[in-house]
Amino acid sequence: MKTAFDYIVIGSGSGGSAVARRLHDAGADVAVIEAGKSTLGVAEIEDPSAWFALQSGAWDWGHHYTPTAHVLNRTIPIPRGKGLGGSSATNAMMWYRGGPADYARWDAVAPGWSWEDCLPSFQACETWQSGASALRGSDGPLKITRPDPDHPLTQAMLKGGADMGLPMVDDPNGPEPFGVSLANFNISPEGLRWTSAMGYLAPIMASERLTILCETRALALAFSGDRVRGVRVFKDGAEHLLTARSGVILAAGALETPRLLMLSGIGDEAELVRLGLKTRLHAPEIGRNLQDHPLLRALNFRASSPLGPMKGNGGGTLSIWKSAPELDQADLLAFPIQTRSAVPALWDHYDFDGDVFAIGLGVMRSYSKGWITLTGTSPDDPLDIQPNLLSDPRDLKALVSGVEFLLDMVLTPGFSHLFADFVAPDRKVSGGDTVTFVRRACSTFFHCCGTAQMGAHTDAPVSPRLGVKGVRGLWVADASVIPDIPACHTHAPVTMIGERAAQFILEDACLT
Q1: Which H or E run contains 261?
Q2: Secondary structure, 3-state, 213-243
Q3: What are the tens digits of pLDDT across the range 75-87?
């Protein structure tokens, strides 16, 4: 097995695939380490309608959020893709970038991350089916398409949203996402899921300068003084040392990247001492600032007739609006589900028999924050993952408003051909009953981020150019670096982060 490279990228997901491809294209010899198996050519991965079954299965890391009273002491699974392409191989394929307000918050703490700074990299990511524009790209690795609008639930969401006063939007990744629109998906024109690995890595698989090591577990970083020189991995029943002449890029995601940093001695010294780990660098914010979008899974309704075959990913639209008119940014997002959908607490409480459709609801401008801690020093020990979902009262208030909005929407003329009755909740709830439903239905949008945040301030463990402060030859290119969760799905922002990480690394290499 080849063991020496210019760069080693740990993780093959949204950020990892992007940074690996761009470093390779610049002439570097790159290794990509992936803990899971190859997903290329796997039917259950490529079928957009099969994504529900990928959660908590063979393609998932099996992580869970620690229970709190805010969610009625329930354990919430946090799906994370374990396979080539990472979560882009198992997620709902949504491509939604957010807008200038999101990146203004990043730029305030990490200068150089404004919307204007990020837009060129967003455009470089994508081949948008409608072609290039001032906001969209047409020659990138990721294929982005609109869904087939000819489904009764898709049409009901469009018309029902309009009945509730939402404007019709041509493209949620256009000038203004507020309103109701057909979604953007990582689905090819041929109808297949288009993962980061398919877009960025598959075209260069035959290159002698790309090594992809699947079913390979990163154990810890290897150092020479203050410089990262490689990574210890476990593969084929044995431990190996892989060396990197220029450096290592962590792209293992917002849960596994902080774990690997802490196992390598980079983290809060008190925590490391508690675990018996030697402290290499005191970085107390590693594992802190954990953020996620709370998702209600889901509001369910009885259909007046069968819905017919599922199309695409089983969704089709985005409804984006404000929970209160005085807000300066839309904070709620709803999407259709062309079948029943519920967490176990709802299955136990309501009758889901018959033809049922659902609507998922998330608060996207969320404020609750939490942390990750290690429970042991093995890379396979469970993580204590606490996002504190709904701990900030603003998140709960927004979701209550959103539930009541959607319960009104299904009674509009736009839903008259489809809606027959309420299922979960089983009536038009309000007040305290809505709060109870929100706590019972709360799950995750699996948009975890922020656990190795970038920033110019002293507390931020990662610089605005994505280098880990206090060590050389180590960068982070995943959702860990996000300082403030954007009001959108995180796949597109993390892909952009991967693109920019390669740019920064190559620029810095030229300077040295």
Answers
A1: helix 253-263
A2: ECCCEEEEEEEECCEEEEEEEEECCEEEEEE
A3: 999 999 999 999 9
